[in-house]
Specification:
elongated; 3-stranded antiparallel β-sheet; 5-stranded parallel β-sheet; alpha/beta; 491 residues; 38% helix
């Protein structure tokens, strides 16, 4: 399940420098905060990066070593591997509340004022210096590196309004700080770093090594306390751009991410990400609990989640697909949402009371997902055919893993006298069950595909039986004729 937001504790009471000292607060740098809090979680065997699936034995050990070493780092990986999600979880390793000088644009610590304004203010007010508190959720900054990004966006520039107010051009207080200094004492992420123009990448050199910034011709040395993280696609080094060599050298660690290595991780990822928009069925539905979209109100049985997971993995492994581009985790999420939406559409058109997603809802995902996959040039014009074939394979593999060893003769007997059963995306569950008739061992079939106690509606029964029919067809024990919007199963 996706982690629900942790409730914030009460804001600390100290409101002046004097009160802060009396509270016993000690000053730590951002990297020291992260290091000590990470060590505490490691010792307690507590989750360090909530919501991250499939990286426990591969990516996370490298990331933990980099953070313990105090390194800035680059995450390399294809699209949809969770790089941004992983970066954002790092803020959970910061202290929940940290003090800042009240009104400071760059979050100076009251014990160590850095900007011109705060240095003056500290000298004037002494122990009465005003203190405000910043939550860790507000100590994260992010910039998608686009070709039009400027040095002013990242680092800062002269503010013409302040000059128009009468200040001299050499006054450091005329500087308008960019995103990086405004995230001082926090975590800053540059997504897709190679897309950043090389001359703009140069502006980050001082941030990484000397830990300060330079703005135009100002004699300004502004020490920054920041953890800088970048993400990039490995192919970007040769396709759209590259990370300049001096900048690569100043990052302390380079960490490779990957897609889920196992089917179990793929399933867990779909369930978790779906939980952003979906809710689990009421407690008591047993091991076969189905995910239900809060906005769609359709259930997605467990065997369909497995089909979608297998489908995603087959697409990634296909020689028809450009492996350098990758197949995002969003591919599987979109497939699940589209299939559930098909069930909702059926319910709206037919009056079905409780929509449950069925195998007949899966073909509709193929045209939707075609644009999410980059195919090899030799496959041009065959995209839909390739995806449809891989979808059938995923259904067959899931059938073999769930119902392959089960005696389905009671269902096959329905066809012994030439009976034909028609199904389709607009066939209500009750009508499909009427066409099939009573089936001995139905409860065993439903249990085998992950439907437990509470999953006894006509929609669940129809979903299990239709999956069995499609599997028998793919195993060549039944025939199937494609009709407009559906299929007819026969011997």
């Amino acid at each position: 399940m996706h982690e629900s937001p942790t409730p914030r504790s009460e804001t600390p009471q100290a409101r002046t420098l004097r009160e802060l000292r009396e509270s016993g607060h000690t000053y730590r740098t951002v990297k020291a905060e992260i290091r000590e809090n990470l060590l505490a979680r490691l010792r307690a065997r507590a989750p360090r990066f909530p919501g991250i699936v499939g990286f426990d034995d591969t990516v996370l050990p490298h990331l933990e070593r980099a953070l313990l070493a105090g390194h800035d780092l680059v995450l390399l990986g294809e699209r949809g591997q969770g790089k941004t999600r992983l970066i954002r979880t790092i803020t959970s390793l910061l202290d929940e509340w940290t003090p800042v000088i009240d009104g400071c644009e760059i979050n100076d610590h009251p014990y160590a004022p850095a900007c011109v304004r705060c240095v003056k203010l500290a000298a004037e007010r002494g122990e009465d210096l005003g203190v405000a508190w910043k939550h860790r959720d507000d100590r994260y900054g992010e910039k998608l590196a686009t070709p039009d990004t400027s040095v002013g966006d990242l680092i800062g520039d002269v503010d013409p309004i302040k000059i128009a107010e009468g200040r001299t051009l050499g006054d450091p207080e005329t500087v308008h700080y960019g995103l990086v200094p405004r995230t001082n004492r926090g975590v800053f992420s540059v997504n897709e770093l190679p897309d950043l123009a090389e001359r703009i990448q140069v502006s980050l050199l001082n941030v990484l090594e000397e830990r300060d910034i330079q703005v135009r011709g100002y004699n300004l040395r502004l020490p920054l306390d920041i953890l800088l993280i970048a993400s990039a696609n490995p192919e970007d080094y040769t396709n759209r751009g590259r990370i300049i060599t001096p900048l690569k050298d100043r990052f302390g660690a380079e960490i490779r991410t990957h897609y889920p290595l196992t089917l179990e991780d793929e399933l867990a990822l779909i369930r978790q990400e779906a939980a952003l928009n979906w809710r689990e069925q009421d407690a008591g539905s047993g091991d076969g609990a189905a995910a239900e979209p809060a906005g769609l109100s359709a259930e997605l049985p467990e065997h369909l989640v497995e089909i979608i997971a297998r489908f995603t993995r087959l697409v990634r492994e296909s020689t028809a697909v450009d492996s350098r581009s990758g197949v995002s985790a969003r591919f599987a999420i979109a497939a699940a949402e589209t299939a559930a939406a098909s069930a909702v559409r059926r319910a709206a058109l037919t009056g079905e009371e409780r929509p449950v997603t069925r195998v007949c809802d899966l073909p509709g995902v193929v045209p939707t997902l075609r644009g999410k996959v980059e195919f090899e040039v030799s496959e041009e014009g065959r995209e839909v055919e390739v995806l449809a074939h891989l979808l059938r394979r995923s259904v067959a593999e899931t059938f073999r893993g769930t119902l392959g060893g089960m005696d389905l003769s009671a269902l096959l007997d329905k066809f012994s006298e030439g009976v034909q059963i028609e199904s389709g995306e607009l066939t209500p569950a009750t009508e499909l069950l009427h066409r099939i008739g009573p089936v001995n061992g139905l409860s065993k079939i439903m249990s085998a595909v992950g439907m437990g106690e509470g999953d006894e509606s006509p929609g669940h029964a129809a979903a299990a039986l239709e999956f069995a029919l499609e599997g028998l067809y793919l195993m060549r024990r039944l025939s199937k004729d494609e009709v407009d919007g559906g299929a007819v199963y026969r011997t």
